[in-house]
Amino acid sequence: MKKIKKIKIKINGKIKSIIQDSNLSMVLKNLKIPLNKVAIEFNEEIIDKKKINKIKLNKNDKIEIVHFIGGG
Amino acid sequence: MKKDSLIIANKKFNSRLIVGTGKYKSMSECAKAIKLSGAEIVTVAVRRVNISDKNKPLLMDYIDPKKITYLPNTAGCFNSKEALRTLRLAREIGGWKLVKLEVLGDKKNLFPDMIETLKSTEVLAKEGFKVMVYCNDDPLMAKRLESSGADAIMPLAAPIGSGLGIQNKINIQIIRKQTKLPLIIDAGLGQASDATIAMELGCDGVLVNTAIAKAKKPLEMALAFKNAVIAGRQSYKSGRIDKILMGNPSSPSKGII
């Protein structure tokens, strides 16, 4: 059986192991991120949420997912 | 009585009280306090999603952004770069353009870094944001902000979370005289009467977080602030009497037996 290759990326400062050739949409789906309530940065660039399935992930990519919380 | 709306960036609001959503014991307490305060605008912070605990309650589940205007802030940002990054992300969450800019300069007193604040205001205004700016109570800086494209001037009453009330009434009055922009006292209020004083000085509104959230009874305090803002506004609009040094009897001096 062919071994599934994994790569390491960083999501919100934490290192995560994901399957090679994943796209961003798959990863966010796995994390159950409510897309209508967040904004996403991919390697320090804000990305259009509609285009996440076109973003292929590579080793050491950095993803930031933010939302609104209580604040003054 | 004529309707007396607060207008910010061409949007009308009935309430002149803006409340923060931080520091509450729970999200449900926060939501109840907002309701009682009558606020139509609430400040919110932009932070990382907790990816390890997906069941954590979300602010949007408690406070409906369709009914209450979210005002994303840049709390915790200490330079223009961080502040711009935060607000651009906030806009991306759901098209928010009305934002609160707050660039801090010192971790202890939390005073704003006005040089970074001015720089950020200019960039944000050019990018189409409607910027409500937390600033110090300096009339010159307020003027600079106005020419940088700010949509509201929000001077502090005292350091954030200090509860000290308005420390420099004169400066607030000078800023009031010189600007037609919405003038909103942001930060440092401690009790309801502080809000009344702000309104009586001619401010268009007040922004309160800690004084409500950390009161012994936050829900009661939310209502107190609502009433205080209304009272202060009515008092300001009614035109106070002149101050005189000596007494002036309230009963006629004619016909005394």
Can you count the helices of chain B?
9
As an assembly, this protein is heterodimer
Q: Quote the CATH topology of chain B.
A: TIM Barrel
Largest sheet of chain B: 5 strands, parallel
Characterize the largest beta sheet of chain A: strand count, sense, and whether it forms a barrel: 5 strands, mixed
Per DSSP, what share of the residues of chain B sits in E-state strands of 2 or more residues?
15-25%
CATH homologous superfamily (4th level) name of chain B = Aldolase class I
User: Hey, roughly how much beta strand do the residues of chain A contain?
Assistant: 35-45%
Q: Main interface pair?
A: A-B, 25 and 37 residues
Structural class estimated from helices and strands of chain B: alpha/beta
CATH architecture name of chain A:
Roll
Main CATH class of chain B: Alpha Beta
- Per DSSP, the total helix count of chain A is 1
Arithmetic mean of pLDDT of chain B = 95
How would you name the CATH homologous superfamily of chain A? Answer: Beta-grasp domain
Number of strands of chain B: 10
The low-pLDDT segments of chain A are none
**What sort of overall outline of chain A do the alpha carbons produce when their principal axes are compared?**
elongated
Average pLDDT taken over every residue of chain A: 90
Would you kindly provide a written description of the structure presented here, covering whatever features stand out?
The complex is a heterodimer of chains A (72) and B (257). With 72 residues, chain A is mainly beta. Chain A contains one helix and five strands. In chain A, strand 3 and strand 4 form a beta hairpin. The N and C termini of chain A lie far apart (55 Å). By secondary structure, chain B is of the alpha/beta class. Chain B has a single domain, classed as Aldolase class I (TIM Barrel, Alpha-Beta Barrel), CATH 3.20.20.70. Chain B has a five-stranded parallel β-sheet with strand order 5-4-3-10-9. In chain B, strands 6-7-8 form a three-stranded parallel β-sheet, with helices on one face. In chain B, strand 3, helix 1 and strand 4 form a beta-alpha-beta unit. The longest helix of chain B has 21 residues. The model of chain B has no long low-confidence stretch (mean pLDDT 95). Strand 5 of chain A pairs antiparallel with strand 4 of chain B.
